[in-house]
Amino acid sequence: MPDQRYRWKNKQLREHVAVIDGKKSPTILLKNVTYLNQILKKWLNAHIWIYQDRIVYVGQQLPSEISDCEVIECDGKFLVPGYMEPHAHTFHLYNPHTFAQYASQSGTTTLINDNLVLALQLTKKKAFSFLNEMKNLPVSMYWWCRFDPQTEIHNEELTFSNGNVISWLEHDSVVQGGELTGWPKLLAGDDLMLHWIQEAKRIGKKIEGHFPGASEKTLSKLMLLGADCDHESMTGTDVMNRLLQGYTVSLRNSSVRPDLAKILDEIHELGINQYDKFVFTTDGSPPAFYEQGIIDNMIRIAIEKGVPLIDAYNMATINVARHFNMEHLHGMIATGRIANINILSAKDNPTPESVLAKGKWVKRENEQNNNFGQFPWKSNGFTNLSINWELTMDDMQFSMPFGMKMENAVIMKPYSITIDASYDELSMTHDESFIMLVDRNGKWRINTIIKGFANRVSGFASSFSNTGDFVLIGKNKQDMLLAFNRMKELGGGIVLAEEGKVIHEIPLELGGITSDTPVVELAKLEKEFEELVRERGYNHSDPIYTLSFLSSTHLPYIRITPQGIYDVMNKIVLFPSIMR
Known about the structure:
By secondary structure, this protein is an alpha/beta fold. Helix content is about 25%, strand content about 25%. It is built from 17 helices and 29 strands.
């Protein structure tokens, strides 16, 4: 269906009507169901007819023709629409294919995904081919269109040219512009970004904000310029400020910001008891965080915190669909919708025992059905990294006058370096380490000291980063080089080295960015990695997020970027990267 202009062809629509007329058999009949009707906000009894990937009837009648129909008795079961994740970062060690498969097992059957990796790592032609391949998955996959790279890169104007951005916005798999990590530029008068927002609004697509700590005045300005939704509320007051300005509010529960329970308590204290403008998001957490569930876990937390049962389900379904103008396809169990349905054992247990995605069983009576197959990664531009250049001790020069101090997992401040960094090894008695960002093609590097990462990590290298360039951190230059060289052998990955030995690795064989390893296995590798770095002094919330945000200039105060050490508040490169 990748070259199909409409969701269903005329011939298919005629077949759907023929099922109602008894001329064709449904493919699945769900009998005697108790289902959640989002329009009436009630649990109703009915029969549900499904033909291929579409619900063709919900009501009291049974089909007269069932010769090619799988009939499922659902008495005593409770049906809700498949859950929707409106803000997914699906290149977070896992990839969109493996994450979609994993998410479907807990009932999340629609993902709206960040396109940043695709925009930075692939040509537009390859990226659009990838989007079309994603349409063939059982789950429903949609995408954002980024307006900036979230850091300072070389030749940004080529990657985020007007032609490229407009082409992304116009793609039928793209449902929103953003997230607006570059909103300070917008407020400062960036008319090209404003033009892209105008184009998105013209064709009926939403704009997702990224406004942590934004004042009421700033929120008002950004709403005037076109923002529709924001996921950066960290308090009940943040939520109220956004609601009062007309935003849809994404309530977040992530590895760095596990805020949902606290925020729900706070909004209830503020007297907020209307939930139609709320949606849920897990904001692209690493694999291990999802062991407790995805959107189903957020529904569970909401129920526990006193959100009415039906509202809790609506925040995961119809509220998302309405926000993105997809109510005709998603978010409810009703005639004409895509057949994404969760079958629950109890109304208050949001983790389904069976899941239909596009009319296919992806989970059946708590057993996984593998309808996802193998994804053609190589033909879509994702292969092992081929690093045909060497990193040497000559590159390991750390003579900056100041470095980066970690305030938490993602916030960095400048600090004056007082240690002597000319040695090949730093003392384990303090928490200052060498840090280097190196171009994935070996053209440039930037070296400084990071304080607060850990005090006993000897050698560490990662091809997983915001830009896809390589991060090296450690106390010992030889162990850092050992970790880098092992990362090369893997074709991409995360490697820890110590005393001349590799002690842990996470292979990221798909472009050095992501892995085709199942999410469950990745979670084990991630937890082992986190345990090892915590034993060596890392004491923040999430080391994977730290890697992801080292270069991210949408967060204060100082960043290590492809252009050099960057002052976020003053928007200047303090020390440029060095050509190799």
